[in-house]
């Protein structure tokens, strides 16, 4: 048995009404509540949602709290998985990627110069993943709208966009506040140009960070709900 069109519409309206607008919580709540409706077969779905389902989650506020707590927990899981993926690159056989990154950066320093190499690696490591994930988020929104889905974004997309935006925020703070005020631009430029190993490390880190963010797009972070 599956929900009738009327039951589906009532459930969707209810979930939107309590403020569930991202893919993961919407699908989790929808699947669980739909299963309960199919099992209990209530005559009035609206009353059933209000008097049975909603109290089982602690009311509308309880549902919003669950969504918020799961969003926080999912974010922590994503950060944890990101660290696992990043540090796994330093184990065999992925260590080959790290070695190749260092070799390419050092070769570029010699052949193309420090400034070009830094700009190129920052673009590849930070800007390219940002563009790819931004395009993915826009495509996701467009596909949801085209297929008449009841959400336009996902927790995963939001968390990943935060991850790829973080380096730009840090560079903005470092480049426009710390460097000119604390260090001095000329001193910093001289320090970077004279410390080739530090520059190599930073450039290689940018490439590995971008690779890690893109690899996270293949992961799934799903929770299962249980009605009390």
UniProtKB/TrEMBL annotation:
This is Uncharacterized protein. Keywords: Membrane, Transmembrane, Transmembrane helix. The chain crosses the membrane at residues 85-104, 116-138, 159-183, 195-214. The lineage of its organism: Bacteria, Pseudomonadati, Bacteroidota, Cytophagia, Cytophagales. The keyword Transmembrane applies.
